[in-house]
Amino acid sequence: MSTTEKIRVDKYLWAIRVFKTRSQASEACDGGKVKMNGNNVKAAKPVSLGDNFEIRTEGRKWIIQVTGLLSNRVAYSEAIKYYADNTPEEDKSAPKAIAAVFHTGKRQSKIGRPTKKDRRNIEGFLGEADED
Q1: Which of 36, 103, 109, 117 has its CA 20 to 30 A from that of 125?
Q2: pLDDT tens-digit profile of 62-75?
Q3: Is residue 74 part of a domain?
Q4: First to last CA, the chain
């Protein structure tokens, strides 16, 4: 890749695997969750070597410095060569978000009440018959 080629912030963050999709990276930029060199940044702003990013995602907070420009998504083992992770240890080990299912009161699938088939098997095992 040539050094004169410009790469958008959203494309760079997607390529280094901070975000799963490019549209998520773009939404994060527009939502003020991405700061470049201390300032909020738009998704279309070009990235330069040495830029510092402060990124807030659902799972964690990132503080990274650009060490190389990458325009296409590559394997994680390759992607980590294009940035330096300066995130403090307490932010890396922050407690993971609890799954949304715990806040809704809904049961997770396959856990909780037995299905109709399970109930019939249990009743058959216990010898209980329908007395209708």
Answers
A1: 109
A2: 899 999 998 899 99
A3: yes
A4: 77
